[in-house]
């Protein structure tokens, strides 16, 4: 083995979960190398938000804080939210006692004596903050731009064949962690199969500037054609009365493609005709993108010398913005298993040790995926009996009590369903 090209742990993918994994391992004394084709670009002051944003729940804000990355984020682009509004469009169905087209409930952090439910922040701001913490860690190296081309699993190590900006490069590692997202090359080359289920909807993300100060509330509505959401973002420093927001529109792929082909002005008119008047008025649109929706779950997360984290292991319906939150929980769990194995002198690269991580996270991720699917499919049924059940559920959620506080604790990442 060429020891000059050897690291204890190679992390393939330096996105949010891969970068967090590198920091979480920084006090183990193990040598770690992050392999990433596109190092993060910092958001320039005064620029509109990037389309890719995350709602970080409070538990994961605390986790990033422990890694030293929360304070490294550009505070002007972090937006806290304290309330969560959930509406259902009754769409012409007359429910007994209904006085409005919308069946609504609001969850408020103050009910559980919390300052906030979480924060909205651009993915690139999170990733840049994590990378900015790499500088002080002697045991951590980065290969970038570099991408994994081939993985050869051996008894004593794993050989990674990389493409470093057109130049081939070989690296040996004791353990490889696949953190390169939904199309994980580590997963594929380790022969781990994946259960993939596409949803019928596509999601369009529209960045809008509102003609109103920023909201402290996320808004989500279930309509017959698919969910709609408005997520509040930061306000520009020089225009505090014109905040950014991310509008999310789920619909049939053909409808999303047609909407995305419109001019920004025509799309704004469509949004104004479709979304409720109570939302803040739109001043202008700054960007649009769309994604097919898919659910994916790896058949296993670990084997000898291989572990998967984040979207490489699981892709969830983004309905409740839980994707990276689950990824950070994977990071916490896997780093704890490696720490414990090291301190007890156990082989941290072996499947039987790594299985402790897989057993902890696989069922929890499965449970969250199934909960999101129950919401997604449950709200699609338009028959009166389904509407009555949902109405009763939202009405119950509208009353103070233990169940309601559990929903909020769950949204904050502080408990399981
Ligand atoms: C519409 C939408 C909205 C969402 N909203 C939210 C939200 O509000 N909250 C939330 O928690 N989650 C949300 N998610 C999910 C979230 O974005 C993902 O779960 C998250 O980005 C996964 O992070 P990751 O680091 O595992 O993977 P990725 O973000 O995909 O990062 C993978 C990294 O690996 C690198 N890479 C790829 N191939 C290779 C290779 N061959 N070699 C080396 N490196 C490679 C890539 O350059 C990238 O940096 C949303 C997703 C969608 C589609």
TrEMBL record:
Q: What are this entry's molecular-function GO terms?
A: 3-demethoxyubiquinol 3-hydroxylase activity; FAD binding
The superkingdom of the source organism is Bacteria
Q: Where is the FAD-binding domain?
A: 7-363
What are its GO cellular component terms? ubiquinone biosynthesis complex
Q: Entry's InterPro entries?
A: FAD-bd, FAD/NAD-bd_sf, UbiH/COQ6, UbiH/COQ6_monooxygenase
Enumerate the UniProt keywords alphabetically. FAD, Flavoprotein, Monooxygenase, Oxidoreductase
- What does this protein need as cofactor? FAD
Name any Gene Ontology BP term. Answer: ubiquinone biosynthetic process
Q: In which pathway does it act?
A: Cofactor biosynthesis; ubiquinone biosynthesis
Instruction: Summarize the subunit comment.
Output: Component of the Ubi complex metabolon, which regroups five ubiquinone biosynthesis proteins (UbiE, UbiF, UbiG, UbiH and UbiI) and two accessory factors (UbiK and the lipid-binding protein UbiJ).
Q: What family is this?
A: Belongs to the UbiH/COQ6 family.
The record's section on NCBIfam families has:
Ubi-OHases (TIGR01988)
Protein name in the entry: FAD-dependent oxidoreductase
Q: Which organism is it from?
A: Larsenimonas rhizosphaerae
For this protein's source organism, the top of the classification is: Bacteria, Pseudomonadati, Pseudomonadota, Gammaproteobacteria, Oceanospirillales
């Amino acid at each position: 083995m060429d020891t000059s090209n050897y690291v204890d742990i190679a992390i393939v993918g330096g996105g949010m979960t891969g970068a967090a994994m590198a920091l979480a391992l920084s006090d183990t004394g193990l040598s770690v190398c992050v392999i990433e084709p596109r190092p993060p670009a910092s958001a320039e002051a005064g620029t509109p938000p990037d389309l890719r944003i995350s709602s970080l729940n409070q538990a994961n804000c605390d986790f990033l804080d422990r890694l030293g990355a929360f304070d490294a984020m550009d505070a002007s682009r972090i937006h806290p939210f304290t309330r969560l509004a959930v509406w259902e469009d009754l769409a012409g169905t007359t429910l007994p006692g209904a006085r409005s087209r919308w069946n609504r409930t609001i969850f408020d952090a103050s009910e559980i004596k919390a300052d906030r439910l979480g924060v909205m922040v651009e993915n690139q701001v999170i990733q840049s903050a994590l990378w900015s913490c790499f500088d002080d860690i002697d045991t951590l190296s980065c290969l970038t731009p570099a991408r994994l081309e081939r993985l050869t699993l051996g008894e004593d190590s794993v050989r990674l064949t990389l493409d470093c900006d057109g130049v081939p490069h070989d690296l040996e590692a004791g353990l490889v962690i696949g953190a390169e997202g939904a199309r994980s090359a580590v997963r594929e080359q380790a022969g781990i199969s994946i259960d993939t289920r596409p949803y019928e909807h596509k999601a369009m993300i529209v960045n809008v500037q509102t003609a109103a100060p920023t909201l402290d509330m996320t808004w989500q509505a279930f309509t017959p054609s698919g969910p709609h959401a408005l997520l509040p973002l930061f306000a520009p420093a020089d225009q505090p009365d014109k905040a950014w927001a991310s509008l999310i529109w789920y619909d049939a792929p053909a409808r999303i493609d047609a909407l995305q082909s419109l001019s920004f002005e025509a799309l704004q008119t469509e949004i104004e005709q479709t979304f409720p008047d109570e939302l803040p008025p739109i001043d202008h649109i700054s960007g649009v993108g769309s994604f097919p929706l898919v659910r994916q779950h790896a058949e296993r997360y670990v084997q000898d010398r291989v572990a998967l984290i984040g979207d490489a292991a699981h892709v969830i319906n983004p309905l409740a913005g839980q994707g990276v939150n689950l990824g950070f929980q994977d990071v916490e769990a896997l780093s704890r298993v490696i720490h414990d194995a090291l301190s007890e002198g156990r082989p941290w690269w072996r499947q039987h040790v790594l299985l402790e991580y897989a057993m902890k996270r696989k069922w929890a991720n499965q449970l969250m995926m199934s909960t999101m699917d129950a919401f997604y499919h449950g709200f699609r049924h338009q028959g009166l009996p389904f509407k009555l059940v949902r109405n009763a559920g939202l009405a119950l959620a509208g009353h103070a009590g233990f169940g309601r506080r559990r929903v909020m604790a769950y949204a904050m990442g502080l408990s399981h369903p």
